[in-house]
Amino acid sequence: MDIFGNLSAVQQRIHQAAVKSGRDPSAIKLLAVSKTMSVGTVEKAYEAGQRFFAENRVQEWQDKVIQLPKDCEWHLIGRLQTNKVKYLDERVTLIHSLDRLSLLETLESQGAQRNIVWPTLVQVNIARDSQKAGLLEEEVEDFLTEAAGYKHIRVYGLMTIGALNASPEDTQGFFRQLRLLKERLEKKTLPHVNLKELSMGMSQDFEWAIQEGSTIIRVGRQIFGERIDTTNEYIKGGR
């Protein structure tokens, strides 16, 4: 697997999509989605210059964060169970999946106990896909107002996952819809809320997301290749 070549190709596509949209390519952060990948495989991406990684499961993040270099930046993009919050710490750069009041309350409680302020994105089910988590569009404003009252939460933007079987036109439309929601809500002045980030776009659709204003894209398959479905475990340490 040519991870160096794959990363270079993705970076070139990011550059081209940004230029086409009149945007600065350096304003777009590429997350390498390393879920289910061995530490050895992630190390190859690190050696190729990648520093920003994303995990779905807390246990995988726990294992990898202690084995990989300290200058890696770690994002959590999977649905976060409330009983897993106690295992997180300041080494998590951004939680992309704040999607319900129970998680908000658990993060606040754990943050207060351990003096941690959690950086988050609110996940929005903009496509109203029954297979996806996230708040509905009309729920986001009230949720942000609620989140603004929590001292140990910071909301830095919105995240969405494209609908699985949507057409390219529909997918780009969903990304545009999320950007317009962000632009509308960022006019509100709320403590602890600064909607500067849009996390949207994955391997199959990140160029459309960039055209619609994404600041963080999440790419796994185009970097690491097709992944084996390992629901409960993954190969650690390259073994």
From TrEMBL:
Annotated Alanine racemase N-terminal domain residues: 6-226
Cofactor or coenzyme needed: pyridoxal 5'-phosphate
MF (Gene Ontology): pyridoxal phosphate binding
A Pfam family per the record: Ala_racemase_N
Keyword Ligase included in the entry's annotation: no
PTM annotation (N6-(pyridoxal phosphate)lysine): residues: 35
Keyword annotations of the record: Pyridoxal phosphate
InterPro entries: Ala_racemase_N (IPR001608), PLP-binding_barrel (IPR029066), PyrdxlP_homeostasis (IPR011078)
Gene3D superfamilies per the UniProt record, alphabetical: Alanine racemase
Known role: Pyridoxal 5'-phosphate (PLP)-binding protein, which is involved in PLP homeostasis.
Family of this protein: Belongs to the pyridoxal phosphate-binding protein YggS/PROSC family.
Protein's name according to its UniProt entry: Pyridoxal phosphate homeostasis protein
Lineage start: Bacteria, Bacillati, Bacillota, Clostridia, Eubacteriales
